[in-house]
Amino acid sequence: MHYVMHHAPLSSKRVLSLLTCVLCAGMAVGSAQAKSAVKGPGLSTPQKTVQSFVTALNKHDLNAAASCVQGSKPKTAGLSEIWNIQAQAMSGAYALEKATYTTTGHRASAQLEVKVSMGSHSFKRSEKVRLTRQTKNWLIVPLDKTTAHSPNVGFLQSQAYMLAQPAEIIAIFKRAKATAQKMARENRAREDKAKQKH
After folding, report:
1. What is the CATH number of the domain that holds 88?
2. Helix, strand, coil in percent for the chain, rounding step 5
3. Taking 80 as the threshold, does the pLDDT of residue 90 lie above it?
4. Could you tell me the pTM of the whole model?
């Protein structure tokens, strides 16, 4: 679930297509790493929170990434499976090319240029991430549902949304899984029929 789409990160069709391909390829899905807190720059400033989030994404650490996002639900059943599929599909890493921060009281915004490398390919997107201060920590504020489905959603924004609204992504994943299983059955049936002819 950047979900690893490049132009419309949270498009249901794109997510469904990606997951179906991954599942049909027979990728094994491991268990999520059992980590509960950020182990990196920390959350004491907007800059540190964004960097911690990027670090957690690069380490495929579900719980560390979730600890950077307001209202995240990392323990939602089924999320760790999707997270691990994404980790295996993402062979590269996220990198902040540019970052400009503006802070006003307990709110902040980060104007970012994010690069994602996947194998021999790389993609860049400019995006704005909002943050809020809660007690001593700064947390990324996920997009609302309407904004999250716009075509200009950024890489980090889509990841934060997935962590805050996992039920939607899990529903898409279940459809993809059912589609992949159906395709596998149809392929086996065609292969069996071809063998019978010979």
Report:
1. 3.10.450.50
2. 45, 20, 35
3. no
4. 0.70
